[in-house]
Amino acid sequence: MDSSLYVFVEDLRGEGVDEVLDRVAGYGAQGVTIAAAYHRARDVTPHGASRVTLRRDGVHFPPPDDLFAGLRLAPPVQEGADEEPLADLRRACAERGLKMHAWTVFLHNTTLGLAFPDVTVQNCFGDRGSPADLCPAHPDVRAYAVALGRAAARQGVDSVVAEALHFGTFGHGYHHERCFVALGPMDAFLFGLCFCDHCMRRATDLGVNAEVAREECARIVGGVLDGDPPAQGEVTRAALTAYAGPEVVAYARARSETVTSLVAEVSEAVTAEGARLTFLDATGACKGYADGLPSAGLAAHDSWQLGVDLVALGDIVPSFAVLAYARDAARVADDIAAYQRSVGKDRELRAVLRPGPPDTDSEDRLAAKVRAAKAAGAEAVDFYAYGLASFDVLGRIPGALG
After folding, report:
1. Cβ atoms of residues 288 and 294 within 8 Å
2. Which distant-in-sequence residues (6+ apart) come within 8 Å of 275 by Cβ?
3. Nearest to 21 by CA among 85, 103, 89
4. 187-233, pLDDT tens digit by residue?
């Protein structure tokens, strides 16, 4: 069974490329998924060069001039990128017969969002309060995403693992976020919809009355902010129709055309550079990241909330990464099976599991989830993430794979 470990460039610098890859091979993994383009974060790194690691937005390789020349947006460049750590890693992987995948964060970039606020999402009140979330409908963002995908593929990798190549969610990705108003899940969803000119125009072209949808969202969310009781229950199309009306639901569904067409362009660009695209849908993280106890709806059924149409993407993307952040092996199996039903049995499914907290407490539990993922149709199991887990937790991987 194919497998890899998610790895950060900072891990390689702190411990050495050879040392990290020797450990990866010792765990029985077939390769590494390296963070080639990442986002801001503060991580506790138990065996890193420092015990707390600050990460920044940007790429760990020199951006090719021919791809970004003339574009308004270009990726920030990480410190040390001129030393080409990915090239060193590629050579070391080749020597060991390990695969190398480029973990690439596309539209989650606070640095670009603060520098160019007009390319970020705009809520129903006209606020651009989510600088980390670039809007996939904006032409400059789309051109940037295609160039970034092509640039990542040029690093000589087997695949480009595309994170955040869709719409984001409300209340994610900014420092010290505060909301002392009780927003229900549906209220937060409406608050997070983008109503920038480009999104409005795309929805209108699809026959949606975008202005009515915006007004309804502003009326409902504004009412809750003014003291109305928040909506109860999970976000479903039926519940949202009853709560906000059919035009809002139509607007939300229209976003899938924006995402599908962008993913198609990026996938084509990646393929042209000799790699393939693995689409990573963040829905699983939205549901289970904090505690490994995802809410009832399966991730594949709720991915439309991020503008992701898995059935449509199944026709254009060869591989999918499923964030199976759940304590229960049966839930992992259910999520994998639902993805397979959506994208088709001829598409690769890669289950992403965490070998430790908050959703794995033993080697037996990890092994059970690996077996469940495989039985449900996953062709690969990847582990997140080398630098974030202690060595004793990482030591569960060989037994789970074995």
Report:
1. yes
2. 102, 152, 153, 157, 158, 159, 160
3. 89
4. 999 999 999 999 999 999 999 999 999 999 999 999 999 999 999 99
Q: How confident is the model at residue 175 (pLDDT cuts 50, 70, 90)?
A: low
According to DSSP, the β-strands at 31-38 and 58-59 are antiparallel
- Alpha carbon distance 34, 326 (integer Å): 23
| Whole-number Å distance between alpha carbons of 168 and 306 | 6
Q: Cβ neighbours of residue 207 under 8 Å, at least 6 residues apart?
A: 250
Count CB neighbours of 326 within 10 A: 26
Question: Is the Cβ–Cβ distance between 32 and 89 less than 8 Å?
Answer: yes
> Measuring CA to CA, how many Å separate 23 from each of 5, 18, 354, 391, 398?
10, 9, 17, 10, 11
pLDDT at 251 over 90: yes
Question: CA-CA distance, 130 to 107, in Å (whole number)?
Answer: 12
pLDDT at 174: 67
pLDDT of residue 169: 83
CB atoms within 10 A of CB 352: 24
Cα gap 153→274, rounded to integer Å: 7
Helix axes 210-225, 185-192, angle to 10 degrees: 130
Nearest-angstrom CA–CA distance, 106 and 225: 32
What's the sign of the alpha-carbon dihedral 197, 199, 205, 211? negative
Helices (H), 1-45: 9-15, 17-26
Which residues partner with 234 through β-bridges? none
Q: Is 54 exposed, middle or buried (0-12, 13-18, 19+ CB in 10 A)?
A: exposed
Q: Cβ–Cβ contacts within 10 Å for residue 16, how many?
A: 12
State the Cα–Cα distance between residues 12 and 5, nearest whole angstrom: 13
Residue 3, helix vs strand vs coil: strand
Per the CB < 8 A criterion, the answer to whether 319 and 380 are in contact is no
With beta carbons less than 8 A apart as the criterion, state whether 359 and 294 touch.
no
Amino acid at 243: Y
Mean pLDDT of the chain: 96
